Every structure is written in C-alpha cells, then in structure tokens.
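Friendly challenge for the regulars: who can give me the structure tokens for this chain first? No prize, just bragging rights.
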Amino acid sequence: MQNQTQIFGIRAIIEAVNAGKTIDKVFLQKGLRGELFTELEALLRKQSINTSYVPVEKLNRLTKKNHQGAVAQISPIAFYDIEELVINVIECGKTPLFLLLDQLSDVRNFGAIIRTAECTGVDGIIIQKKGGAPVNGDTIKTSAGAVFKIPICKVDHIKDAVFYMQASGIKVIAATEKTDNTLYEVSFKEPCAIIMGSEDRGINPSTLKVVDDKAKLPLLGDIESLNVSVACGAFLYEAVRQRIAP
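First reply, four minutes later:
Bragging rights claimed.
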C-alpha cells in the first residue's frame, strides 16, 4: 500500500500537483537548491500542501528510488468540501453528527477512529490540512476499509470548521478534561459535532474558547487519560445511546 500512495522526484511531484492529485504531505531534502526545486516549493506553498524539510537519510528510508530530494504521500481518497457535505446532510433530513479531529497525529488512532465513526453513523470527519495524520496504508488497514465509506474533509484550521458548524445550527462539543461536565450530562440529541484533540496536547486552547459545550469521561482509576481512539468511541456511542433511547 505504501508504494501505491507515494511518488518521488521533483518533476513527478510538480506534475501530480498540477494534475490535481490529492497530496497529503511532501518531504523535501534540507538545504537542497535549484530552479526546479524552487518551482516545486512555490507550488506547494500556493496550494497550501503540508511540507516537511528532512535530512536525506529520511528520504532514503522512504524510498530506495532516485527521489531527487523530494517524496510525496498521495492520498488514496478524495476529500469532500465541508460546505457541500454539511448542506447535503441537513437537506436529507437526518440529525447531523460530525467528528472534528484537532491535529491527531497517530495514523493507527486515526484509522481506528474512522472505523468507529463509520459504525456509529457519523456523517463526516473534518481534519486540519497541516499537522495531522495522513490517510495512508496504515490508516486504511486500521480503519478496516471504513476510510472509503465515510466522507472526510480538510480545512485550513479546525476553528474554521467550528465556526461553519455553528453558523449551520450545529452544536460543537469538545471532548476535554477541562470541564466539570461528564459526557452523560451533555445532550447529543440535537445536531452536533464532537471535537477530539491530539494525543499529546489535546484540543487547541483557542479552539476550546469558541465551542458550545465541553464534556469529559469519568476516570475512576489512577491513569489520567484514555487513548484518544477509545475516548472517541465512548463519546460516539453515548451519542448513539441518547439518539436511539425511547
């Protein structure tokens, strides 16, 4: 799967971007110079494609081919437009349930969350263009193929998604320990979007300031937190419980 979602070489990546291929991330060799390399850099900036400058050893580990100082990860899926997705869900008459992931970085957690989201009827997952886990072979495998069954959107910043959800009449609920409310005290029955934070930092503080509600999981043991994919499952199934309860 990795070879199917990876291209290498400066000219090849330029052509892929110009052809409209969905690129998750490009790794560029530190200190590399040249007219074609500069053209690639400018194109990546113009398209707001996630770029990371790395030592040549990193590139050599990614591929044994002649990479010329550039390796790109191609997404195996096409990403949805958030505005079109939200409008379509609302117009179909369903009570929307969306999931926002604030720079979740582990691909296996990402895949597990996608799988749970598909099983719980989530209408779409929104991720940030930069700083999060890519959709790659590991994501696909861990999701058990669910990545092909649920719409995924990319936004410049998760706060953009928060504001759009709120403007569309969708309540935004943050899963965070920075509250006194447990998830059992919050209503998920109305149109809502749940935000899960990254494994190490949680939800961005600036995003927490603009959400409509916050909820946490009650932790009865000595460990202070759960794996994010496990926590996400608990939140999504509480939403399911509330919505199907008589």
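The two ends are 44 Å apart (CA to CA). The CA atoms of residues 187 and 242 lie 8 Å apart. Your move, everyone else.
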